[in-house]
């Protein structure tokens, strides 16, 4: 079905209070009407088979029965189809029962998994997510029986997440004495690890500061400081526990002492589920080799599977306009000198969408494609806005045009003044930095929306560190900003009519509007009317991302760029990265947007290398 025609009477955007109220906890499921119809037809067909078999049984004459070699075969043959048909035919279900799912719809629609590879989601019934967390056998057995566990924490867990003490729900936490010794060794300095060590020490002091020795042995309530979710107790190692370990292991090493404590606790509490929690992979391998249950720390993971990360793009089903075209409204509005078309639609797919999510429909029958962005959602009613085509040279941004669908979505977000926070994910060569810089220059130098561009990134080297660098803050940061210099060269060469002198003057003007800042001096600052680009954001922790995003003042736009497959920060994974954290938390907000760029546009060599290497 083609796009609906424009009505004669234009409509207007409704306020959220004018929409009909939607029911809470309503999940989108496939309409059961079609399934019920199929079930009814199946039941009718089965009834016809039963009636035919009964008629055949009645028409058999005694003479025919006598002429057969096996007289019992005729009634048995007549009764078997009736029993089989009765068992197969389901009873007609009422229309209000949303349990049945048509086989045709399931086959036509793919599961709703959003792959990081760039393939957008297809709207369908929610797929089952698999638990990719590797739990120990002891932990799984305790989950089945419903018993509480005793988690022995390694030092790296506390230094990685100072609030980890209060994230084990109803289970108890045990701290060996060597863990406290290692915390004391790491508390000095200005690094993130030292700050976390000092914070966890303050928390422990607040928990046990007013308790005598006998009560410490009984355990301290973790909910004492106001953490209501922590319903377990905190135990300390108050006496020497001799755990038998293999003779080859050096007894003075901290890891081996913690393993000895776990072995001693197992012998002291034989019926209790005791699990070692450590961020150190080798520590967990060593524990499992000794027959001790060990697990990773999972509570810092935003997602258990990075393939389920929100992509910001969804592909509409082929029959979208047939199911949602009834009672559609459309109108045009002019903003910033451009005319935009809006559609107000109602249908079953709408509740699964999010505000500022991009939708597209590319029919295979030759009809026109549809690209839109969700602007409002209320119940089963949504307002879709058509997009500006930045792939056309007439709409180029600082001489840059989009080369694929995802880049066009990204430029619509970057050039939208109502969108304050933009996140772009994608592998190397997808154009994240180039698009962000082009949009920033266009809005700083042409439309004067922002005063200047501020660029920052995490200074985590891929290889060995090159040591101290001389010069000012910007000169020290210049080796880390090679990617921006490369993209600025591309943007400067786009103007062929300017000549060498004109390009040199333009380059000086651009340099004066771009400031390079270090993350180390961001705390306490406030940026007003700035275009802030955070590159390599996958190397940031959730706390660092919060520190940066909260620097935004009035009129500031923040863009986070990164590739979660290239994380260089120790102890950070795809599930616990700060970039994953903000993508998951900001989705659905009216003033933020996210796009996962799919296709590399750097060169054929770079694209082929990213696929095969």
The main sheet orders its strands as 1-8-11-12-13-10-9
Averaged pLDDT, please?
75
| Computed CA radius of gyration, to the nearest angstrom | 32 Å
> Approximately how much beta-strand content do the residues carry?
15-25%
End-to-end Cα distance: 43 Å
Helix coverage percent: 25-40%
What is the CATH top level name of the largest domain? Alpha Beta
CATH topology of the largest domain: Rossmann fold
The shape, in one word, is globular
Which CATH architecture of the largest domain is right? 3-Layer(aba) Sandwich
Could you describe the largest sheet, including whether it forms a barrel?
Answer: 7 strands, mixed
Class from helix and strand fractions: alpha/beta
Number of domains: 3
> Strand tally, please?
19
Biased composition (Low complexity): 73-85
Organism: Undibacterium piscinae
InterPro entries: P-loop_NTPase, PhoH, PhoH2-like, PIN-like_dom_sf, PIN_dom
Domain PIN: 149-285
